[in-house]
Design goal:
The protein is mostly beta strands. The strands form 8 sheets. Strands 1, 2, 3, 4, 5, 6, 9, 10, 11, 12 and 13 form an 11-stranded antiparallel beta sheet that branches. Strands 14, 15, 16, 17, 18, 21, 22, 23, 24, 25 and 26 form an 11-stranded antiparallel beta sheet that branches. The chain is elongated and about 175 Å long. The N and C termini lie far apart (about 160 Å).
Length: about 500
């Protein structure tokens, strides 16, 4: 039978075998009368018991309200009984100590641990009047690291109560300014595990303080199992309780998400062994979905892909260029973030001991840089670093290949002519003064519709007076460039007028 109580968002059922004289629903309340002695009345969710009462002396009546049921867990109910009644309740916390109060007074034996089954069981003798039962979890503050880790040698390690807690407030936190860890985790097999710096002096190696890098989410330092401190070495197998958070081939990191997850392993000793912080490490999430979470959202440093733009085929860039045209390009990579600045260095030495180009940190979202003044046909090395919107740097990024060679210089065509002011039908001597072209081919276009010439320095006659645009194209092994000049051609001078005179 499904309970249809006003305001109840959970699907609850009356369990099979439940016995009572009568039951009723009025608004948001469900009432049961006359649960017989030694008979069960069970309210269940789909998978577990929300409440099971068994009177052992006389019949009992009880009442629950939808306002006291949340996510299949019952926090408060009322019972009228004379004599003893046994109770089983489903609760939210695993291995948590729950306090049971009747009419505001804590009963004997409280708090009661919920164990791995997340249930508490207790008995209480009624006095014939209606009594209010309230279950409260242990007092626990929020902590910014929580969840469960697993060790084959030590079992579950819990980072925050009450969901995975014992009966006291404990947990592990990271300092949101420094990243230093503090607080305690709990293991049934190991006891308290401290992340407090005061417990971590004298660690086996490196920096003792347990820390998480707020930028990249990488953990470092040590934690320590306090139960091993001060114990004889023969009792602990020579282990002093140290748990390493980072080694040469293992460690912990933070994966951004909602919430972020801690992933990876720590190492304790041969008996405790590896501690896994995320079921994905061992591929068991389908059967054992354990994870450690944190509020930290790491700012992973950005990166970029780098390239040199090939300008070897561009006459617009290479003709008449006084230095090699170079464009250094990159693609900024940082999911959900943007570039705020960049720095480029260019050097003819791979160690960047004295960079030819070093503009410093440039505040810009641009993804391209054109260094000026680089000589032609020279090998250069370059590197780049970029910053995201939070001013986190990628560090120096090196392209592959690490170097580039600037283009050879293209020909620089130039010419003169003589006479400077030629006349129509007059021979004009063109003198080729092209630079950077030891073995060029030349093409002359005189602009008057006559045939072109491939002579290095041709002689040409213009038939008619006009202003002609004469073009010289010089082609070398690397490219072709053209230069044009206007040659003004005038009318020829008229012949002198003369008259023969008879001599005296």
């Amino acid at each position: 039978m499904i309970l249809d109580i006003v305001g109840l968002s959970e699907t609850l059922y009356i369990g099979s075998g439940s016995t009572a004289n009568s039951l009723s629903i009025s608004g948001s309340s469900f009432s049961v009368s006359g649960v017989p002695k030694n008979e069960n009345f069970i309210i269940k969710s789909a998978s577990s018991t929300v409440l099971n009462i068994v009177p052992t002396v006389n019949a009992a009546n009880f009442n629950i309200s939808s306002t006291n049921i949340l996510e299949k867990y019952l926090s408060q109910f009322k019972v009228t009984s004379t004599g003893n009644v046994n109770y089983i309740m489903n609760v939210a916390g695993k291995n948590a100590d729950y306090h049971i109060k009747v009419n505001g007074v804590e009963i004997a034996g409280s708090p009661i641990n919920s164990g791995a089954t997340q249930q508490i069981a207790f008995s209480y003798s009624g006095n014939g009047t209606e009594q209010t039962f309230i279950s409260t979890p242990p007092t626990c503050q929020n902590h910014n690291i929580w969840g469960e880790a697993w060790s084959d040698g030590a079992g579950w390690i819990r980072f925050r109560c009450p969901t995975v807690g014992s009966g006291v407030d404990y947990g592990v936190d990271y300092n949101q300014t420094t990243g230093a860890l503090s607080g305690y985790a709990w293991s049934d097999g190991l006891g308290w595990i401290s992340f407090n710096s005061s417990d971590l002096t004298g660690c086996p190696s490196g920096t003792c303080t347990a820390t998480v890098d707020l930028q990249n989410g990488v953990f470092s330092g040590w934690a320590r199992t306090l139960s091993a401190v001060g114990q004889p070495l023969e009792k602990t197998g020579g282990w002093q309780g140290w748990i390493s958070l980072k080694g040469s081939n293992y460690g912990l990191g933070v994966l951004g998400g909602s919430p972020s997850q801690v992933t990876g392993y720590t190492w304790a000793n041969s008996e405790v062994g590896w501690v896994s912080f995320n079921c994905s490490n061992t591929g068991v999430c389908g059967t054992s979905n354990y994870k450690v979470y944190t509020t930290l959202v790491p700012n992973i440093p950005p990166t970029a892909t780098l390239s040199v733009r090939n300008t070897s085929g561009s006459s617009a860039l290479n003709c008449f260029a006084g230095s090699a045209p170079v464009f250094l390009d990159w693609t900024f990579i940082d999911a959900g973030d943007t570039q705020s600045a960049y720095q480029i260095q260019v050097d003819n030495n791979s160690n960047f001991s004295s960079p030819e180009v070093n503009p410093g940190k440039v505040t810009s979202t641009s993804n391209s840089y054109a260094p000026s003044g680089l000589p032609f046909a020279t090998t250069y090395y370059w590197r780049l670093q970029v910053w995201d919107s939070q001013n986190v740097s990628s560090g120096w990024l090196v392209p592959s290949p690490t170097s580039f060679v600037t283009n050879p210089r293209w020909p620089d065509p130039s010419f003169t002519w003589s006479p400077i002011d030629p006349l129509a039908e007059q021979d004009v001597q063109f003198t080729n003064s092209t630079s950077y072209c030891a073995s060029c081919n030349y093409l002359w276009n005189f602009g008057d519709g006559t045939a072109t010439s491939s002579t290095t320095s041709p002689i040409h006659e213009f038939a008619l007076p006009n202003s002609y645009s004469v073009n010289l194209t010089a082609t070398s092994a690397v490219g072709a460039c053209s230069k044009s000049n206007v040659v003004p051609v005038d009318d020829p001078l008229p012949l002198p007028v003369w008259q023969e005179v008879v001599p005296f």
